[in-house]
C-alpha cells in the first residue's frame, strides 16, 4: 500500500500506519479502535485545560455564528482580538506591554526576531542584527526560528539559514559572555526558552537566565523568552520569566494560550521595544499574518484563559510537578532511569545515551499512556487537569516500559 495523501509533519514520508485519534475528554484520548490513552503530553505540549472543554467549544461556536473570521490589518479590529491581547498583557511579567498575534509558535518566534531587529533599526542602531541562541533550543520550523534552533538535525537539508545567528552551548554563561565581548555592539537579542522543551526538557542552570538579562542590559540587547511551551501555566506561573524572576523584553507564546483548540500564537512586546515602535507617529508596521487576531482563535483563547483561572490550573501545575518529580526520582533511585529533570508540570526521564526511547514510548503506548521520546529522554507535559491517580499511572507505565 502506498502512503496516503496526508504528508505527516515530523514523520517518515514512507510511513503508512498512524494511530487515528477520534475523541478526547479531560486527560484521555481515544483511538479509532476505542483504546483509551492518558495524554501525558497534552497532545504536543499544548492542551493545558484538557480535551472537550464545553466553555471553549461554546465560545468558539458563539463567535463563529457572529463573525467566524475577519482580518485585523488597518483599519480593522475585532472584540476577541482586543480582549485576548488585554488578558495576555494583564498577566505578562512586564510594564505596559502590547501583544502581537500570530497563528503558531514559529510565526511568533520569527515575529519576535523581526521586532527585535526592527526596534534597533528604529532606534538608530540598524547594525544590531545578531541573534544569540542556545544549543538544544527549539524555536520552530520557519526560517527565523529554524535558524535560531540549537538542534542541528532539524536544519539538515534546508539550505542557507538566516545569517546573523550565533548558537551557544546550552548552559555555558562563559560562552555567552564571550560572544557578547566579541559581538556586543551588533547583538540585537538573545533568545532562550526558560526551560528548554523539545530539545530534551532542560531547566536553566541556577543564575543562567539572570546573567542573560545582565548581559543584554550591559550591551543594549533585548532578551526574548520563548514561552511557547513554558507559558500559560506550564511552570506554575503565567510565564517563564515570572517563574524565574527574570524580566524579558519580548515573550513568544502559542500552544497553551488556546490549549490548541484553535491555533493561536503571538509576541508580548515589552516597554523598550514598544517605545521604539511608537516613537514616530508616521511609522507603519509592515508585518502581520492574514490570520493575526483571527476572531475565532482569539475567542477560544479568551475562554481558555478563563478556564485556566476558574479551575486554578496555574497553581495545579505545581502539584502535578511535585507528583511527577517525586515519581521520576523514585525511578532513578530504583535504577530504572538515569535522571529526573523538570520544572512545574514539565518533566523528562533521562536515559543513558543510546537508549531506544522510541521503544519505550511504544511500550507505554501499548499500556495506554502517551509520552514523547526526545533523543535520550522521555518527556511528560500533561494537561493541567490530570488527576493524581493518572500521574501515578504514567510513572508506573514508564517503570513497566523500562523493564
Ligand atoms: N518555540 C518553542 C519553544 C516550541 O516548543 C515550539 C513548538 O514546539 C515552537 C516555538 C514552534 O511552535 P509551532 O510548532 O506552533 O510553530
Structure explained in plain terms:
With 403 residues, this protein is of the alpha/beta class. It has 2 domains: 21-52 and 312-401, Aspartate Aminotransferase, domain 1 (Alpha-Beta Complex), CATH 3.90.1150.10; 55-310, Aspartate Aminotransferase, domain 2, CATH 3.40.640.10. Helices cover 37% and strands 16% of the residues. It is built from 13 helices and 15 strands. The chain has helices at 42-45, 54-67, 79-91, 105-122, 143-148, 173-183, 208-219, 240-244, 271-277, 295-310, 313-333, 357-366, 388-401; strands spanning 21-25, 28-31, 36-39, 98-102, 130-134, 165-168, 187-192, 222-226, 250-253, 265-269, 339-343, 346-350, 369-370, 372-374, 377-380. The strands form 3 sheets. It has a 7-stranded mixed sheet with strand order 4-10-9-8-7-5-6, with helices on both faces. Strands 1-2-3-13 form a 4-stranded mixed sheet. Strand 11 and strand 12 (346-350) form a beta hairpin. Helix 3 runs parallel beside helix 10 (295-310), helix 6 (173-183) runs parallel beside helix 7 (208-219) and helix 11 (313-333) packs parallel to helix 13. It is globular and about 60 Å long. The two termini are 35 Å apart. The mean pLDDT is 98. Bound molecules: pyridoxal-5'-phosphate. The site of pyridoxal-5'-phosphate has 16 residues, from helix 4.
Structural features:
single chain; 403 residues; alpha/beta; Aspartate Aminotransferase, domain 1; Aspartate Aminotransferase, domain 2; 2 domains; seven-stranded mixed sheet; four-stranded mixed sheet; 13 helices; 15 strands; 37% helix; globular; binds pyridoxal-5'-phosphate
Amino acid at each position: 500500500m502506498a502512503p496516503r495523501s496526508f504528508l505527516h509533519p515530523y514523520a517518515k514520508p514512507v510511513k503508512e500506519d498512524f494511530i487515528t485519534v477520534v475523541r478526547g475528554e479531560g486527560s484521555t484520548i481515544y483511538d479509532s479502535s476505542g483504546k483509551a490513552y492518558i495524554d501525558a503530553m497534552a497532545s504536543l505540549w499544548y492542551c493545558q485545560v484538557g480535551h472537550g472543554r464545553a466553555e471553549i467549544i461554546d465560545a468558539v461556536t458563539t463567535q463563529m455564528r457572529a463573525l467566524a473570521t475577519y482580518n485585523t490589518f488597518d483599519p480593522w479590529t475585532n472584540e476577541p482580538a482586543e480582549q485576548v491581547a488585554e488578558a495576555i498583557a494583564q498577566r505578562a511579567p512586564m510594564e505596559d506591554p502590547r501583544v502581537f498575534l500570530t497563528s503558531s509558535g514559529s510565526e511568533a518566534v520569527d515575529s519576535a526576531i523581526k521586532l527585535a531587529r526592527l526596534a534597533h533599526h528604529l532606534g538608530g542602531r540598524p547594525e544590531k542584527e545578531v541573534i544569540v541562541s542556545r544549543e538544544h533550543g527549539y524555536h520552530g520550523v520557519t526560517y527565523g526560528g529554524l535558524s535560531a534552533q540549537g538542534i542541528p538535525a532539524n536544519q539538515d537539508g534546508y539550505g542557507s539559514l538566516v545569517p546573523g545567528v550565533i548558537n551557544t552551548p546550552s548552559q555555558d554563561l562563559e560562552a555567552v559572555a564571550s560572544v557578547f565581548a566579541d559581538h556586543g555592539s551588533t547583538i540585537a537579542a538573545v533568545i532562550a526558552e526558560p526551560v528548554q522543551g523539545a530539545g530534551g526538557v532542560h531547566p536553566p542552570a541556577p543564575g543562567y537566565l539572570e546573567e542573560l538579562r545582565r548581559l543584554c542590559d550591559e550591551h543594549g540587547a533585548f532578551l526574548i523568552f520563548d514561552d511557547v511551551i513554558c507559558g500559560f501555566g506550564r511552570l506554575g506561573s503565567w510565564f517563564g520569566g515570572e517563574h524565574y524572576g527574570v524580566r524579558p523584553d519580548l515573550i513568544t507564546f502559542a500552544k497553551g494560550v488556546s490549549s490548541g483548540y484553535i491555533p493561536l500564537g503571538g509576541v508580548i512586546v515589552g516597554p523598550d521595544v514598544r517605545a521604539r515602535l511608537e516613537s514616530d507617529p508616521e511609522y507603519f508596521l509592515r508585518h502581520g499574518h492574514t490570520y493575526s487576531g483571527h476572531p475565532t482563535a482569539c475567542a477560544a483563547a479568551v475562554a481558555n484563559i478563563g478556564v485556566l483561572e476558574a479551575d486554578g490550573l496555574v497553581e495545579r501545575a505545581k502539584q502535578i510537578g511535585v507528583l511527577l518529580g517525586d515519581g521520576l526520582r523514585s525511578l532513578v533511585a530504583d535504577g530504572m532511569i538515569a535522571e529526573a529533570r523538570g520544572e512545574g508540570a514539565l518533566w523528562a526521564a533521562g536515559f543513558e545515551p543510546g537508549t531506544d526511547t522510541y521503544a519505550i514510548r511504544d511500550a507505554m503506548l501499548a499500556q495506554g499512556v502517551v509520552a514523547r521520546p526526545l533523543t535520550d529522554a522521555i518527556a511528560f507535559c500533561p494537561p493541567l487537569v490530570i488527576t493524581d491517580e493518572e500521574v501515578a499511572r504514567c510513572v508506573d507505565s514508564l517503570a513497566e516500559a523500562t523493564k
